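On clarity, I found the account of how folds are encoded harder to follow than it need be. Since the whole study asks how a given chain folds, the encoding of that fold should be made plain. The format is easy to grasp once an entry is in front of the reader. For illustration, here is how one protein appears when written out as sequence plus structure tokens.
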Amino acid sequence: MPKYANTTLPTIVLPHGGPWVRDKWEFSSGYFVPIAHYFANRGYAVLQPNFRGSTGFGKHFTSAGNKQWGIGSMQQDITDGVHYLIAQGITDKNRVGIMGGSYGGFAALAGATFTPDLYKAVISYVGPSDLNVFMASFPEAYRPYLGNFYAAIGDPAIEADRKDMAARSPINFIDNIKAPIMLIQGANDPRVPQEQSELIAKALFNAQLPVEYILAKNEGHGFIQHNNKLASIIAMERFFAKHLGGTKSDSDDPDLVNHLATLTVDVSTL
């Protein structure tokens, strides 16, 4: 949280990826921990929930997330965290956004579709939008982990699982969405392919819903190139400032602003 806050705050919910990891009370060089500090500096409260399915709290806590993606206990824990901050007078209920990467990106899209009145701005960073397509296109290199994903999400070869995954996939509930959405994707992502962002980008555009799409052609599952990272941060900062009313820099590096323009996709061309 920002220091010396004496009023309700715009809030960014930042569910971690994995989901088999956890956020800790420490600084890390990972992408999203500095992002939490960055947005706190910009005047936001930042919530990093360790929802059911996270690791570090015992086997039963982790397995409690099995087949709970989207509309189950994992998302409910995130929602409950937001309601708690509102009840405590920390969060302005009219200025809540959600963003995350990988699983966190999925959780952000799930927040937009399954609790549409809660969030006013949503960013999905390399997050899946269609669980059936995601599981059916599981990359060969990750096949040793496939059993874990079958248990956590579902097996597309099983009809009941396919129906369940469809019911938990944001792509199938576009009409619920009220918040503007930003999608950030690497074109070479082997874990969450570009298709996952473009499916929902096209669906949002066709539904005449506000969507922004940033695509880095030289990135994979997360940005590692310095200029791409910084340009994406500028985009996120501007997006949340516009929709949640937080502060933003008035002196962005012109080279990064120009680079951001090269990463920004006209969704109407997809």
Observations:
- The first strand starts at residue 9 and ends at 13.
